[in-house]
Amino acid sequence: MFELMIETHFSSAHQLRGYKGECENLHGHNWKVQVYVLADRLNEIDIAIDFRELKRMTNEVVSSLDHAYLNDIFPFTEKNPSSENIAKWIYDSLKKKINNENVTLSGVTVWESETASATYFEE
């Protein structure tokens, strides 16, 4: 089994509704996003998926978040734009884009700082 990972980033602002503390206030992050895929076999040229293709799809997804106020973007108009919910939203959005029989999306990790991240994966 092979696991591949690509990394990208975006910057945005948000605030957590109902949170009692500093994150209740409008603030921003330079988010780092890591996308993991699994492959049990390689294709005819001995790769699971072209890293450029995975990066392109991921950047298409996160581009709508870049330099945005996340609370104004659905589903964050209804759900808090927490690291956990952002990771799940990116995962769900990216899963719809990956049409490669060799790979399966295995997880998305979103870092809001150098020391704090959330990962979403399906069982």
Give structural notes.
- Helices cover 22% and strands 36% of the residues.
- It has 123 residues and is of the alpha+beta class.
- It has a 5-stranded mixed β-sheet.
- Helix 1 crosses helix 2.
- The chain is elongated and about 50 Å long.
- The two termini are 17 Å apart.
Number of strands: 5
**What's the helix count?**
2
Helix content: 10-25%
Shape: elongated
Distance between the termini: 17 Å
CATH class, please? Alpha Beta
Q: What is the CATH-assigned architecture?
A: 2-Layer Sandwich
Average predicted local confidence, pLDDT = 96
Structural class label: alpha+beta
Largest sheet: 5 strands, mixed
User: Helices and strands, in N-to-C order?
Assistant: EEHEHEE
Oligomeric assembly: single chain
Instruction: Please name the fourth-level CATH homologous superfamily.
Output: 6-pyruvoyl tetrahydropterin synthase/QueD
Low-confidence runs (pLDDT<50, min 5 residues)? none
Tally of separate domains: 1
**Amount of beta strand:** 35-45%
Biggest sheet: strand arrangement = 3-1-2-4-5
| Radius of gyration from CA coordinates | 15 Å
**CATH fold name:** Tetrahydropterin Synthase, Chain A
Write a short abstract of this structure.
With 123 residues, the chain is of the alpha+beta class. The chain is built from two helices and five strands.
Features:
five-stranded mixed sheet, 2 helices, 123 residues, Tetrahydropterin Synthase, Chain A, alpha+beta
Which helices and strands, and how do they pair?
Elements: E1 2-14, E2 27-39, H1 51-62, E3 68-69, H2 83-97, E4 103-113, E5 116-120
Parallel strand pairs: 1-3
Antiparallel strand pairs: 1-2, 2-4, 4-5
